[in-house]
Every structure is written in C-alpha cells, then in structure tokens.
Amino acid sequence: MVACLLVPLWFCVVSVPIEAQEVEIETPTRLAFFLDCNFCDETFIRQEMPYLDHVRDREVADIHVLVTREDTGSGGEAWTIDVFGLGAFEGQDLSGVYNIPADVTEAEERNGFLRTLEVSLVPYLMQTPIRDRLSVDIAPSELDAVEQTQITEDPWNHWTFEIYADGSADFESQQQSFDTRYGVYASHVTEKWKLQLRPFFNYNYDQFERDQGTITSTAQRNGFTSYAIRSISPHWSVGAYGDILTSTFSNVDLRYRFMGAVEWSHYPYREANRRQLTVAYRLGASQITYRDTTIYNEIEQRLPQHLLNAGYEVVQPWGAIEIGINASQYLHDLSRHSLLFDAEFDIRITKGLSVGIGGFFELIHDQINLPKGSADLEDVLLRRRQLETNFEAGIGFGFRYRFGSVLNNVVNPRFGGIGNRDRF
After folding, report:
1. Can you give the pLDDT at residue 47?
2. Those residues with Cβ within 8 angstroms of residue 207's Cβ, 6 or more apart along the chain or in another chain
3. What is the pLDDT of residue 97?
4. Selecting from 2.40.128, 3.40.50, 3.40.30, 3.30.70, what CATH number does the domain 4-133 have?
5. d(CA 223, CA 216)
6. Per-residue pLDDT at 354
7. Residue-level pLDDT at 298
8. pTM of whole model > 0.90?
9. R_g (Cα) of the chain, nearest Å
C-alpha cells in the first residue's frame, strides 16, 4: 500500500509500501522512539509527543528516525526524514522531506517539523492501541487550483540574496579588540544550474598596552568569489570558478583566479543527503601581486594550477563517516604542491556507547606567498602573518556512554542555565 498525505504547503511526506513481516513479533502497546538528529529541538519534541516513549538508544527503540539536511536554492533547507522500523516493525521503513523556506521563524520551523514527524509515524501508530485516538485534520487552503498554478511563476527567476554582517568588541584596561565581517550572497539554483556571486569583507583590530608602549595590530581579508555549475547527468557536472582576494595574513595585495572544473559522483546526486562519493578536478591560473617580496624574490606572478578533490560521506543509523582528500599543484614548478587528508568517524558501538574520532594531515610544499625576512614577535603571537611549515596535523577523539533509564520523556526546564556564568 502506498499512502500520500497532504500537510502544510511548505512540506510533504511520501511513504513507501510496508511489507508484511515473515516472523510474528508482538507489536508494542506504546512506541519506543529514538530521534537521531543533532540539530533538532529535542526538548520541544518530547513535550509535544508525550504518547511516545522517547529513548536514548536505538537498541531499545521500536522506531529510529534519522534526520539529515541540505541547503535549497531559495536559501532555505530540506530536511530528509528517514524512519526505520525495528523489532516488530522490522522492514517497515519510509522516507519524507520537510522543506523550510528561508523566511520562516524558528517557531514555524519546529512546528512544521513536528507535524511532518507526526505524519511519518502514522503507519506505525496504526498498529498500536493509539490508532483509536488518531484523527485526520487537513488545514483548508485559501488558494484554488488556478491560483496555485500562478504562484509557481517565480518573479525572481530562482535568484535569492542574503546580506550578512556581524562583529564583536572587547574592552579591558590593558587591551581592546574589534572584529567585523560582512558581505552578500547572490545565488541562483535550479535542477540544471547552480550559480553564486559573493563579495566579502573581514577586518580585525587589536591593541595592547605594555610598559614598552602600545602594540597595535590590524588584519584584513577581502574578496569576491563566484562559480557557475551545470548539471549534465545524474552523475556528472561541469563548471567554472572565479575569485578575487586581498589578504594581509597571506601577503596577497591582489589575486585574480579563474578555473574550469568537472565533477563525477558515483551515486546519483539525489542521494547526496545520505551518501556521497565524488571526485572533482579544477584547472586554471592565478595572477598575484604580493604586498611584500616573497622568499622566492617575487613581487608579482602568474601561476597555472590544478586541484583534485575526492570525498566520501555516509550517514546511516549506525553513525556517520566523512573522508576527504584534497591535492593542489602549481604547474610552473611541480615541486610546489600540497596534499590534505582528513577524516571523521562517529560510530555507535553497542547499546549506549558511541565513539568519535577525527583528524587531518597536510603536506605543505606550496607556500610561495611567504614574505622575506623574519616575522615580528607580535605578528606571531597574534597570528597576523603566515609562518613557514612543511606539514600541519591535528586529531580529536572522544566517546559517549549512557546507562541507566532508557526513557527520556520528562522535561524539567527549571533553572535552565540561569546564573551559571563563572569567571574561572
């Protein structure tokens, strides 16, 4: 049986057939529900769905809900909701999509997700005594069929614009700092095209009072990035990238760069929210004018360059894996290259126990932009100047183990963080 349910206009759920179970397992009278989502408002979900047993581990759940998200062309998001039946519901899986426009409020976003989630659980609730308490409520539409057709005509032709600005300031008797960044995103996304134009500006200022006098440091990073990507099949895309950059940290007075690109995806692009295996190649050149003469006695260069990026990502009920390889090489001197490998693993080992580990390692032999001379102590401490190195590495790891009651139904917001600030 295939069911299609209509919910508010900004989201829709499509269920897949639920097959009969080969082995009879007693159906629970109350669903044990495990929500696998690191960006959802779980407290709100528990409050609004008290008819479920919210558990902390999928091993004791009847229903496992995995939520992933992607950006949409209009500046909003698409949350994919995959529901996995466990135990008596083994093999009864379904999938839905909750589409969020860019202009909704946080309350509208979580209320819409709640309704989508509730609709997704109807096939399972129908197999429990709760079916006698279910009812159908379809909100009336103010638009008739003609108006709904007319509203699909987009006067903006799928272009969206976002202006952002933020900053921070910190003042003490011996020091002060100020940071700001601002810019614009202009994006056009359709099934065939993906375009973006983005000017950006960053400014940092620090001042320190010392016995020897006042130390002042400033840094700027401004530029413009753009790309145009054309989809040519479910597995192939081609595109072009162009950017302009000026950066005090990187000793770049002005850089122009243009690169053509091609990308191959092993899995169809429609599966990107759950799994990806992609390889992308870029080829182009840069025209660079440096702020100070480099360690190779250059003040201006034209540099042909190519880049290779390969990545694998998978999100499954047992956890998530993300692996990437990024290689870069200047063609005027093949010894000027870099190679970056990074990986993150978040794996559920057993009931209540999950481990996470991540890290990166980069071989660096392409620092052609470093200025001549030794760096001042202030520049080093304030990280206002790039330093020479032939490698960079980092690692992070941890584990999480939960035991005791598996129920997670109770919500108690008393003293929710009020007065917890500590100076030490």
Report:
1. 81
2. 175, 176, 177, 214, 215, 216, 217
3. 86
4. 3.40.50
5. 24
6. 80
7. 92
8. no
9. 27
d(CA 392, CA 122): 51
* CA dihedral sign, ordered 181, 186, 188, 194: negative
pLDDT of residue 153: 65
What are the residue ranges in the chain where pLDDT is below 70? 1-25, 74, 139-154, 273, 352, 374-385, 402-424
Are 250 and 290 in contact by the 8 Å Cβ rule? The answer is no
CATH architecture for residues 153-401: Beta Barrel (2.40)
For residue 283, give every residue at least 6 positions away whose Cβ sits within 8 Å of its Cβ, in sequence order, or none: 259, 260, 261, 305, 306, 307
pLDDT at 408: 54
CA 302 to chain centre: 34
Q: Which two tokens stand for residue 395?
A: 């690692």
Distance CA 129, CA 32 (A): 14
- CA neighbor of 232 nearest in space, from 284, 185, 194: 194
Q: Six-digit token pair at 373? A: 């001379």
Rounded to whole angstroms, the Cα distance separating 176 from 147 reads: 57
For position 141, what pLDDT does the model report?
A: 62
Are 86 and 64 within 8 A, CB to CB?
Answer: yes
